Amino acid sequence: MVTHTLTPELAGRVRLAGLLYLVIIIAGLGAELVLRGPLIDLGNAETTATAIIEAPGRFRLAIAADLLMALCDAGLAILFYLIFRVIAPGLALSAMVFRLIQTVLIAANLMALQTAWLLLAKAPGMADAHKLALVFLDLHGHGYDLGLVFFGASSLMMGGLVWRSGLFAKAFGVGLAVAGLVYLVGSGLRFFAPSLSSAFAPAYAITILAEVAFCLRLLLQRNPV
């Protein structure tokens, strides 16, 4: 089995990957859970419209955070390929492509949020505009989950690469692979069994734990002695 030999250049790439990963985690969770999430109630168009209209800066900052996340994700996908291509070139390339597909889908999906904002900004008192804006907000949620299907597949591949690399403890590879399965199952439920999505939601804590742990491991990479 081919393993990596740690060099100063490789260690630098690993730490840069950790930095990008940290920005992705903070921007992604911040946009969804802190900025945008509390404003949106998919069961009530009027309440959602009022909340967004009263906090336009917060809503648009969430879009900016997601855009920053997508930019960093594209860079991270390429960086991971450069780090792991020695281990398994085909698998590393596949992981990069699937992650980049996720990035493109999530970035393009921001237009659904922008459309919702334009509807509310240009017709703040129209009930029909409020209902249509809610449809676009719901569409954004589904588009995000579609991106996570590809991210889940990429995470499974990354789990295999980390396991085989010799650079990291195998537990990190297991964690990423399990996180990938959670993303795949959760996104599948969102599309095909939405009534079960709420019950499955706590499983996403596994993805946060696995990704934060791997991010910190990347950041703490030392140069070879």
UniProtKB/TrEMBL annotation:
<feature type="transmembrane region" description="Helical">
    <location>
        <begin position="199"/>
        <end position="220"/>
    </location>
</feature>
<keyword id="KW-0472">Membrane</keyword>
<feature type="transmembrane region" description="Helical">
    <location>
        <begin position="171"/>
        <end position="193"/>
    </location>
</feature>
<feature type="transmembrane region" description="Helical">
    <location>
        <begin position="19"/>
        <end position="39"/>
    </location>
</feature>
<dbReference type="InterPro" id="IPR025495">
    <property type="entry name" value="DUF4386"/>
</dbReference>
<keyword id="KW-0812">Transmembrane</keyword>
<keyword id="KW-1133">Transmembrane helix</keyword>
<feature type="transmembrane region" description="Helical">
    <location>
        <begin position="96"/>
        <end position="120"/>
    </location>
</feature>
<protein>
    <recommendedName>
        <fullName>DUF4386 domain-containing protein</fullName>
    </recommendedName>
</protein>
<dbReference type="Pfam" id="PF14329">
    <property type="entry name" value="DUF4386"/>
</dbReference>
<feature type="transmembrane region" description="Helical">
    <location>
        <begin position="146"/>
        <end position="164"/>
    </location>
</feature>
